[in-house]
Every structure is written in structure tokens, then in C-alpha cells.
Amino acid sequence: MWFMVKNCISMSRSLKKGPFTDPKLLKKLSRLKVGDKTPIKTYSRDSVIIPQMVGFVFAVHNGKTFINVDVREEMVGHRLGEFAPTRKFIRHGGKMQRELEAKAKTTGTQPATTK
User: Fold this and answer.
1) For the chain, does the N or the C end have fewer beta carbons within 10 angstroms?
2) In contact, 72 and 51? CB cutoff 8 Å
3) Does the predicted TM-score (pTM) go above 0.90?
């Protein structure tokens, strides 16, 4: 039983090491002026947003394309990958949802959302 519990526990990064930010990303950041809105391309989704990144735009790769992320103060401490989703939500429903949407289209009202 212990091996199952051991595999489920996720370890966070050591406080002694501090937050991880890709050194290449910091180098690119130092070359730009504050407030410059040219996107900085990066594949480093696991980099933690630090206060020096506020005000810059990062083009974060989501596995297919680059998604522009405008960094604000509230984002400090989060990771870049949190703001570039890797999956595209289409919709729930199926046949029943299509019927509701068709009915709403004919009456001219908004379709009811299902949860």
C-alpha cells in the first residue's frame, strides 16, 4: 500500500533552491527595455514568473503554436505554462445539445448551457 501513496505525493521545489526560471529567458529579458511589447518566444512553460517579468509579453509554446501572455503583477509566482492552455475545449453535449441550439436559433434566444 505504501508504494501507491508514495507515487501520489508530489514534491515541490526546495525553498533553498528558490523558484526556477530558465537562464536563457532571463538573458532575453535583460536585452529588452521595460515596457517593450515585442513577444519573447519561449518553450519554457515551467519557468516561474518573477517580478522582473512584469510588463513584458511572452510567446509561450503550447505544443502547437505560441500563445502571447501579457505578464501582470497578479501572475508573479505562477508558471508561464498556466496561461497557455494545451488543450482546446470544444463543447459538451452531443445530440441533445445540438437540438437545444437548433431550437434556440429558430426562436432567437440564447441556448441554455449544460454543466
Assistant:
1) C
2) no
3) no
